[in-house]
Design brief:
Shape: globular
CATH architecture of the largest domain: Alpha-Beta Barrel
Helix content: 40-55%
Distance between the termini: 42 Å
Bound molecules: phosphoenolpyruvate, magnesium ion
Largest sheet: 8 strands, mixed
Structural class: alpha/beta
Number of strands: 16
CATH class of the largest domain: Alpha Beta
Oligomer: single chain
Number of domains: 3
Radius of gyration: 26 Å
Low-confidence stretches: none
Strand order of the largest sheet: 1-8-7-3-4-5-6-2
CATH topology of the largest domain: TIM Barrel
Length: about 575
Amino acid sequence: MSILLNGAGVSKGIAIGEAYVYSREQNEISEHKVSKDQQKNEIQRFKKALTKASEQLHEIKQKIAADTPADILAFIDTHLLMLEDPAFNEGTISNIKEYSCNAEWGLQIQSNRFVQVFNEMEDPYLRTRKDDVLHVVRRIQNCLAENPEHVPDGAQLKGRIIIADDLTPADTLMLQHHKIAGFVTEFGGPLSHTAILSKNLGIPAIVGVHHARQLLRTGETLIVDGLHGMVISQPDKSSLKQYREIKKKALARTNLLNKLKNVPAITLDGAAITLHGNIDRPEDIRILKKYDDTGVGLYRTEMMFLEKNSFPNEEMQFKTYKRALFRLKGQLLTIRTMDLGADKELEETLEQGPMAHNPALGLRAIRRCLKEPDDFLPQLRAILRVAALGPVRMMIPMLTNVEEIQQVFNLIETAKLQLKQRKTRFDQNLQIGAMIEVPAAALSASAFARQLDFLSIGTNDLIQYTLALDRIDDEVSYLYNPLNPAVLQLISITINAGKEAGVPVSLCGEMASDPLYTRLLLGMGLDYFSVQANALLEIKHIINNSKLASLHTQVQKILKASSIHEIESLVEQLNH
Ligand code: PEP
Ligand code: MG
């Protein structure tokens, strides 16, 4: 009989194959009191287990190294670094001494402490880092128990769908090396490193499928639908046929889009369109390059601040930006200065006092940078320095008036002076641009364009602020619509202001990554899109199959329409 199980689809795509249930012994961890003399013994055991765990990870790295890019191997390096982290290993040793307990229990106490710290983190990405702690702890506990990891041999795994309790990034890499078709785990979340890795590797995967190991059997046929988070065991003939068909079509679509890699984005009537990617960290450039050898239209630097939960110093920022620039190999890097505040707040700041009543309308992004220049200047200096090494632009988020632009210019001059005094090299002519995210900025776009080198429309916020709705509040998400005529007017005003002033205008909000809006934006005169890496080829496909001249005429009609319904149906016609 066919059964259907649900979980969180973390890597889209469909896998069809035989199940392989990967069962591993769980070590029972219990506390044993040990004498002072035995403590030394336990500490020795723990140190030996650390060495063994590290050897295992190095061995895995070596096995897969030949065909694995450095960024992917870095997932294993994270675990290796944890093994060396004093907070982790010296903490465990102190526990063994303080509680006079066995090594397993000392490690368990330390693991619980780490997990609690991660559990209390606001940011869901950082919260999920506790999975890495649990993975490392499990490996050491196995070494302490002298449990040899039962690793199935490669021939057993090829083309199979792996069912496991949880997989570490190292497990995932080994399994991919053995050419598995997909995997399903009982635990783990969509933001775990394993989930991110499966997406990077293109392995269809579903996590959080409870009791999967009890409900599924080795050898039975499975369908893994990564898009919808569904596992179907022993599917009937018609489901199999249907999924094979979907898989075939998806493959054909992927092959078609892959042919567009490194092909210029050009409309049927010859207009060249710039198509760049959005990144959160330098490592994301590897994924972007998988789709296109192109530049970056939005680098959200605050992610580094949030991950470190502090303000990294100038040197650390300079090194990080340099890494991004070198990975781009001569392509443009647009660095956005930190957009902290609202839903992106440092723990450190939260601890200093209660949040503002309306944080999205409060001291966010450039407002907070202007209020705390000592936090901002190191970033300005780091960007000025990296710009001397290659094509870099600096972009300022959430500006609302030209006075703020002047204040930014003054601070940039201060940063330049500081670098000059230090005799440090920097780019004297760094290009400065503004994000247009607030209606006031869109309505002042002409004045902005006269003072700046470029503009970039951030529709995620522009929609939130134009329609007076919190972009993270589900209750009002029904109002969130890029096709609201007021939003379209503000986008159009900005594009036209840029054209009149001869200043480039891009759009880097999510709207640019949605194929539904590509033709509309082209028709409005947009010629620079900055998109999510995985949407890039789809957007290029639409651009390369559109005729700009006819879009302009149709879009004029859309811009005159006053109801969202009418606009939606006109956009549908445009896309047909
Ligand atoms: C935007 O607001 O559209 C944007 C790109 O910035 P963020 O999503 O980081 O606020
Ligand atoms: Mg924004």
